[in-house]
Amino acid sequence: MVSRESKNAVYTAFRGFTFVEILVVIVLAVLVIGGIMKAFTQFRRGFSQGEETGITLQESGMFLARLRSDLINAVPDKRLPPDRWRESVEATPNTLSFTVYTGESDRTSVVEYRYDAGNGKGSITRSEGGARTRQLVNGRIASLTWSVETEEIADKGTGSGTRFLWIDLRASFRGEKTPGTKGKEIVVATKLFPARLIRSLN
Amino acid sequence: MTLVEILVAVALLSAVMIPVLFSFTAGSRGLAMSAEDLTVHTAAIELLEQVMAAPFDLVPTGTFANDRIRDGRPFSPATPLRFHISDVPGIERKLEIAEVMKDGRVCLKKVTVTIALSSADAKTPPRLFSLKCLLAREN
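YS: structure for the whole thing
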């Protein structure tokens, strides 16, 4: 026969958790797991947005660098009469074209940038000499405008004028590869001066 | 497992997670700075290119502070050149043009463009970005 004292000793040595202890552990576990899940979800969303922003930055930077590089090598179109120098760079809402000197083959060719608005997810392609088309920005342009501006200022004493020509570019880039995961908007507003072309015009 | 052990485990888990979350914040800050770099770099080149495209003799010397660098405003009374500037919020421009003499003749002009990007936090000093180039007399 087991005495009451020995029963109590067994109960004390192998005592389970109390209801309150289990509740506290469940509440803590829910809080911790909930916090981790929330942080992980935010991390994933932030990572996707960061990835979108990174790719948009890369493509917008590459587009600007490529356009600037082409404009550095821009030269006047020899077929144009001198009084039509303002048409050295042609701009429409969807195209921007001009003549460049290509050092590789020691000749000139026409470079064209084509903008496809694509319902808020615009793209830009570049072609040279009507061939070698390359996409520079793929579906990451929210809006883009470009225009050619010109100015002719009179030189004192010489009676001649100094001609200036530049491209006024305004664009808003934003990537959204996955629906609902928009990257940071990158706004570019700049004027690009084709120095070689301007020097040739004067 | 006692309640104290669970609390210690939770504290350790939190200590591990905090650096992970901080690393993500640093990544986001890096991307924001890259976007700012593109903005200031583009603004600096815009100002530098128009000076480079101008005829050597028409390029004035001096220091041009931000309040003088406005779209359509003349560089100075001594030249017919005018600034052509895009509206970019949050930046301040400064242009310095100095002559380099040789044999009593101006042979080069040193052009320095400085862009200051103000921070959203008023306590943080603005980030400065500079581009320099030399203009040579071609005739």
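YS: worth flagging: The beta strands of chain B are 62-64, 91-102, 105-117, 127-136.
IM: good catch. Also Chain B is about 35% helix and 25% strand.
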